[in-house]
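Q: What does the assembled structure look like for these inputs?
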Amino acid sequence: MVTIDLAATPVRQANGLIREAGGRGEDVRVVNPDARHHIGVGLTDPITVRVKGSAGYFCAGLTDGARFEIDSNVGWGLADNMYRGTVIVGGNAGAIAGVAIRGAEVVVRGNVGSRAGQVMKAGTLCCAGDASFMAGTMMYGGRIIILGDSGERLGEDMTGGEIFIGGKVVSLGADAMETDLSADEADGVMAFLDRHRIPFKGRFAKIVNAGAKLRYGTAEPRRRSVPFFVAAGQSDYWNARIQEDIYVKSQIGRYRIRGYGAGRPMPHLNDIAFKADLSGAGSGRDPLSRVTLATEIGGKHGARPLELSMPVMIAPMSFGALSRSSKTALAIASRLSGISENTGEGGMLEDERREADQLIFQCLSGRLGWNIHDMQRADGLEIYISQGAKPGLGGQLMAKKVTKELARIRGIPEGIDLRSPSRHPDILGADDLVIKVEEFREATGYRIPISVKLGAGRVHDDIKIALKDGFDFVELDGLQGSTGASSAEVLEHVGIPTLAAIQEALDALAEIGRAGDLPIVLMGGIKDGVDTAKALALGADAVGLGSAAIIAGGCIACMQCHVGTCVVGIATQDPAHERRYDTQREARNIHRYLEAVRWQLAAIIDGLGYTDYRQLSRDDLVALTPEAAAISRLPLMPESGRVAAP
Amino acid sequence: MSDSAFDEAGKSQFVPAPCQVACPIGTDAPSYIAHIWEGKYAAAFEAITATNPFSSICGRVCDAPCEPACRRASSDGPIAIRNLKRFVMDKLGRDHHSPPVPVSRTKTVGIVGSGPAGLTAARDLAEAGYAVHVYEMTDRLGGMMVWGIPAFRLPPGIIAEDLDRMMAHCPGIEVHLNRALGRDLSLETLRERHDAVLLAIGAWWGKPMGIPGEDDSRVVDGVGFLREVNGGARPTLPETVVVVGGGDVAMDACRVAIRLPGCKRVTVVYRRGAEDIPARRDELEGARAEGIELITHTQQTAVVANGNRLALRCLRAQAGAAEADGRRQPVPVAGSEHDIACGMVIAAVGQRAGSDELESRDLMNIDRVRADFNTMATPIDGVFAAGDGAFGGSTIVMAMHHGHKAAYYVRAFLEGRPTPAPYRTPFRTRRVAVAPDPKWELFPRQHQAFHGLGEDPASFPEIESTYAGQAARDEAARCYRCDAETGSADFSVRNREDIFAMARLAGDDGARQTRMLRRRLKPRDPPFARDRAATLDDIVFLPANLSRLVIDPYREACATRTRLGPRLVLANPLLATGFDEAEAPVRDALFAGLAESGSGYVGARAPGRDVAWLRLAPNAQDAPAPEAGAVIYPLGSEFRPLAATRASPEQALGLSVARPALEAAIPFALDNGFELLLLDGSAGLGHGAAEQAGFPDLAVIRDAVAILRRLRKEGALDLIYFGGVRSGTDIAKVIALGCRAAMVGTALGLALGGTLDQAGAVTFPTDRDGAERRDAAANFITACAGETSMMARCTGKTDIHNLEPEDLRAISLATARAAGIPLAGTL
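A:
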């Protein structure tokens, strides 16, 4: 037994000691906890940790296998994302107790705050007292036992699992209903209570999903898309695309869904150009040997940075939206080109982890596939707030893609039209986010860079918050960013263009005297080394390539990613379709594409007379259109570059 | 990837698909495939035959380099482009003719040889108005198409189809059969008769194998053998035949042999591996399916005769170093000598041209006509050459390419242009819409029926048949349409093709990397035309992110309840309009849909008790309608004071105004107790096609809000917008700009199954019943309300009426001005 006195030991050091004790198999006693945050976070050994007092936020969070006994109260986020193991709380728990648990047993002898068991996948959360509002909201599985009363909207938008409630219910949530419980279930609940010596005499009501929102009603007619930009603004106002949209909506009664990003023309990096004549760039020389492209990103708070052979990353794309084969091809290509890959939402694939040298692990609101073990073997952790394709909305994955394997990795029921929550359970504002970032750092020993993914909206405000919250870098994704499935309306109409996003971000940081203090990885419609060079010259620290990398790997941009029967085997989970994809061949293609990006970038830098990409600056650029000039504040020179050789 | 692509408007944006690029004559395959899906066979025929005078023939026997180039090849098999061509030609090839082109020029051209090169040039020159004389040494037109390809692959009637079509189209072509160069005509005669001469004499003679013993009478050359059989002979063969070679002639020869009397076994001997065989893959598979044996990696060294017995003596060959074309050189293995016994050897190891006449004029370079491939010119002025005879044995489609190219240079010569721009294969697109087939991703390659030898092989029945209708349509649906935009400005065809090319560039190939960089540096066309109108399309919402985080609601739900005036309440912010004159069934269905979805109606007609009615434009003589929730007095663009009366105290009063009348109308409305202001951004509320007259006026909202603000009366009037609203997103934008509701006219008409006629009016076909129409209206309104609330929710709102101008940004300057909101990135 090790005793740790939190009055004398900082939590960071204490967590190190707890993990060491875990390694030795020795139990831990924590005294004078005084409601400090993050106690025991990241522990993956089956020891017992006794907290002699109250714990703060995220006690026992991101753990697997341990037993925690807390004498008094706990703050919010109790047992966050806990896999196996047990937590016993003697007093009350704050909001989102048992959030995202995946098998743990969590017992609170007092009351629990709001949204207990939010997005939990498996295990049992038991509250011997009363639960506040929205217990079980968006839970995907597992069991919640409430012996006392429940507040409003119990089981709001729950997808799976069961809630057993012994007391009164103020109101049921959307898509939740009461049903009978079987004798076996009642016995199971009583056995659980007996095991934890919780006396109960009453009767339970069982609350489950009512099934109204798990699947979209009428299927959207499958169609290949009508080009939007024959539509937008230029031509006939009531064009074929608009008419088709209206027709389809009149049949299905809801918005349309598709893949890819904003389709229509809008101000973009294409509308700025290099001031110098680059028509001879790269000609007759080896630009790669003449310029420095290698960089590091993510080390500003002491973590081991990502080492990039050029300021380029593979943008986050999920296993789920994409097939295992295409995720693997991206991972191989990222390794061959010496850049980073990113899991996107929905968990880390073994193949992906093995093939990628540097892998960023993304944490989304639904905590799908999120777990401490994969966090610890990641090279970067990323909190997804939103993305350019659908900021303000959660992810979508249509039922055809929610296969058994995928459901297992994500911890959700098979075959639902998965709509991820649009908000994180434990990030309601900038201050919570600071504590969330700390939790991740605690859980991984401050080794791993932590980034934030932001769809571009109120960038001017958001970037300052991201800076304050202590991220190592930000991935900023413009309106042109793509996705595997989203509302077509949101794809086209929510968010600001990539060019406006980087400008706002840089202006905002400069405004508070913090220019250069938060590295920005710009993404959203970046196609080649030319776009990359422009983004870097504007002030981005790196770029992310998503759709372009997928296209290099065989995508034909039909925009039907959501359907699940991708013709080339990329955006599919159907084995018959995935067989169409040759992983090794496409990995080589993506690699060659990345090398062409590198070559173009190097040739431009060399052509401008520089030797390092960091020498690129706004002074090298001009705007070609009035909009681009107004957004970027670059000089308007519409004819620049138009006379270049073919 | 070609830079030479222009669309029909001469614009250079068009990037041809890989199949089109692979076709030596630039056939617009994506267009004809799409036309087949549409069932527009005549249009498909036009696309097929535009550059291909031998379309019927090619539908059966083209080498089809398009198919290996097809992107779907690496997925689940290429589109059967050739068979789709055949499908169309079998339907229309016999009877569908293009109009005749009269002779309109005085100069004439003499063409020697009537194979695909000669006749393609003849057609091009005849289409240009020249009289063309074709001299053919045999008794029929077609060259190797006739004499080289056996009837089981290409029935004689098919050849006739193409020739008949060409002759009907080109009356300026005069044919001279049985006229051989040298025997019947000299080059000088031709030069005297004609202003230009094209030598398309073909590679008529088989090359020898160059091994001992091949002068045995039982050794024949492949083209000679095929010529004899195609002339009608059906010789009896020995039991065992060996064919040497791996080209198309070898494939045809072996398949002919197996069909002839006496022959029981045919073996093809080839010096490289099966994957290197130059013949089309299908031919090899067909031959194998007919029982022909292929022996690879085997090099012939001698023909050994031993009395009645004959054998081909061979060495085994290993794959050696790769040659320029990527194929590995065969290297004989010492000591591996062996004999293959047979009764006959057919040598199909290449062809050569021959002409004593040209030899005597020093126009032969060993076995080819001396000509410059860049200009198709021979050393003699005005004499050109094309086809296999000049450039070696190739395919029909390559010969046609030569023909087009030669005609181009002949014309330049005739028209006195000594240095024309280098010939480039034309790539045209017909811009056919992508087939919206729901199963395009799922259909496997549709195979054509293969019949093999048939019951009477020696009669050469055709080996395969084309599709029945549905299979052709399914196959056509499979096309990726690499030529077509899919709806992404960023990932346009051009950008996709460049990315695709980048993914195939060798990292150390500086020259190609440089060329690609230069292409990529070229600016695109500006996204917005100079005169781009302000439009709702160019407004975007600012999403909630780190700022404005809200926890509730999690999904799409968001309050849409909409109050207009003091008492009128709708379930959503949508008001229908424009159905006063619609047929009763349509109108009734709409009203039922409005009742179901809780929307209102703006019009002169009462929509029934369950629908909120904003009564429009009552005349003085009209009876008051106390059941109307509001009365709207239309002013339009000109203000005039008017007397407004309420039929009941509950009724709201409204004015409808266009922008020019705002300054006067707003103070009037405020002073006279009006509660609603209907802002008319259309060409005139109440006119039939008010929303079809161009872009709606957004500035009417901006100005109304500004005037109310100036008067410190913001919120004193509930604003309702009319003009070009098409979706819930449009409604959300209108609300964010300052309105409480939007009127929807044309969009609802379309939702109810209406179509837009030329004049811009919505007309209703009678193909839907009332319930379908009611559901469609209700569905569309539900979808719009959902979209409106989705937009509000994305911005972090729980009620659509909390949307603010501050939630918006413009992405074009015109829209920023008209809507009075900042350009993204500038605030």
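Confidence is low (pLDDT under 50) at residues 1-11 of chain B.
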